[in-house]
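Hi R.,

Here's the chain you asked about this morning:
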Amino acid sequence: MGSMTMVVAPNKKEGAEEITRCPECNSGHLVRDYERGELICEECGLVIDDQFIDLGPEWRAFDVEQGEKRARTGAPMTYTIHDKGLSTEISWKNKDSYGKSIPTRNRAQLYRLRKWQRRIRVSNATERNLAFALSELDRMASSMGLPRNVRETAAMVYRKAVNKNLIRGRSIEGVVAASLYAACRQCNVPRTLDEVASSSRVGRKEIGRTYRFMTRELSLKLMPTKPQDYVQRFCSELKLSGEVQAKAADILKDANKKELTSGRGPTGVAAAAIYIASILCNERRTQREVADIAGVTEVTIRNRYKELTDKLGIEIQL
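And here is the predicted structure, written out as tokens:
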């Protein structure tokens, strides 16, 4: 007869002591019911714990390859794929699950299976729309260097627009670009309309029009961007030190107190503050360099620069 292994304690919860005896009859005969997820006393029948998780057998992996082979889970669900990443996919590699090459006589069958799998994954017009739109969204986000959370948020916004039938009469690229712009605003990763338009196949005017329509129809509550949101990225692209970044943030803080930022473009004010800070910290950048990075004109920087230096009493020796 094979020996039966009895587990005498539940999983250890954070901040809790391991239970080894029944609190009712002080018996040490505790067993787990794997079907119900309970820890039960054999003597008196008391259910000691009913919410523990079976973590399965423990294993160790010493490199990435071993970890992938022994993994018991798949990729997490994502909204950036039209089927949320839940369907199966037949790889283009002609290898089986053990890594062995598929025999030549079976490759034609595998090719047919792969073709039908692609067809089944996209079965109706809505899924075809999502498949194209989300691939376009991923392309634009990669081009702009946007993080994962922005892509997920943009995919959610686009799905809401599809469910409300807001796509009809508008280009898919325009709605995707507007969704990405809205996601950037929601996630505090500001990008200008010009930056979004440069990565898209539609113009700035159409993106702005579609964005305003979507915010109204989907009731998106988005706060206007602030000059402070752009300082870190502009300083990084200009290769300026943290001292300049901190100084620009202080200038903008003082400007905000005196209401010098209201009614003015946030990128222009941020660019002017960075230009002033670079001079004060002896890391001078020309107005042309700052204007190119910020996407504004030199005239805008000069106007904002004069306002900030005059109203804040900043003395600069040129």
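One quick note: The two ends are 93 Å apart (CA to CA).

Cheers,
M.
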